[in-house]
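Batch manifest, entry 17 of 40.
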Amino acid sequence: MSQIWSECLNTLRDSIPLSQYSVWIQPLKAFENNNTLSLLAPNFQVLNYINKNLKAQIKNAVAQHNKNLKIFISIATNQNSQNTQQHTTPLFEDYTFDNLVLGNANQMAYGATKQIAENIKTSPYNPFIIYGGSGLGKTHLMQASGHLAKEKNPNIKIIYVPLMDFVRNITSSLRHNTIENIKTFYQSADLLLVDDVHLIAGKEKSQEEFFHIFNFLFSGKKQIIFTCDQPPKNIKSLENRLKTRFSQGLNLHLTPPELEMRAAILLKKAQNKRININLTEDTALFIAGHISSNVRDLEGALLKLKAFIDFSKINHDFISKEIIETALGDLIKPQVKNIDINDIQKEVAKHYALTISDLSSKSRKQHMVLARQMAIFICHELSSLSLSKIGKHFGNRDHSTVLHAIKKIKKKHLESIEIKNDYELIKLKLANL
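Output type: structure tokens
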């Protein structure tokens, strides 16, 4: 580095705000030759900002140390691309919006992510942070935005990096004295995607460099999307200046998928060429009813089922619930719960498109009778109430009426596939309340 420029940096550090200095002045490369000081900006964004906002301050700082130096500010032509390309990670081919299953759990995050991808230079949601537990589809959503943004604008530069890769890059660059190259690389992004940003907590040097990169991109209106396992304000050992910047954008919580969404995920993933097994809606609901944690566990269950079917040489067209129980073993356990009778009435009424009061009414319409008998039967199975107490919740019906309803459903359960499916679906939904 030019000795004069090194002295100028000290002057500039004291005369302009630190945020401006670190984002715009520090990345400049200086070369001194024959009374000429050449300052090279890493990209046009830095060059334009310097010329518009900081050129006068730079000239004044240089004049204080050498009035005879002529100053030229231009763009660097050699960005050492071979050294920086290794610090990017490609987007996953399958993580697109087309491959995303939508449900109540991710509807809002999907809408926001897609809107950002379609309006990458003008979206008001910057930074955008998707947070939630592991295996809920945060990375899929984030990378889907990258695929769509690239489709809309093929010339856009997208950088995706898991946070720990970023930390390793910073550590390596400090060891080899190439920190400015790494910062320049990340600052060249039009869309920066960072996975698991919470892992930066407690890593002081990485936080410092990340802060400068963030400021640079944000001030240049470049889009930033992160995933995180919790709201940024709750991350321990994260500098307050990063917490405030992360929290100033749109932060959306991704919750675990509901039963129907989990079943839809299973059906979609079962059609994948890598798995390619024939699930029905009933069998998908059966698996989803027992695995409620996250998408990764659903994928693991599918792979386990596929392995069992392949190695047992079972016909893929005849995957029964009995086969699933055998294949998945301890993943499929009967869920014995003491369910509140009000929840049972609510779920049965919803299933049959009735009101709770309909279940207690004196109506003898066939549809209402079936729903009432189904609710009584499930109450007998899943609650600890006596027959007479169950009857009180259904319009003060007596012991014998309740017993009759239970017997009727037992008989219909054996005779009618439709009623059996109704019963199993309602139980699944109650098990996942």
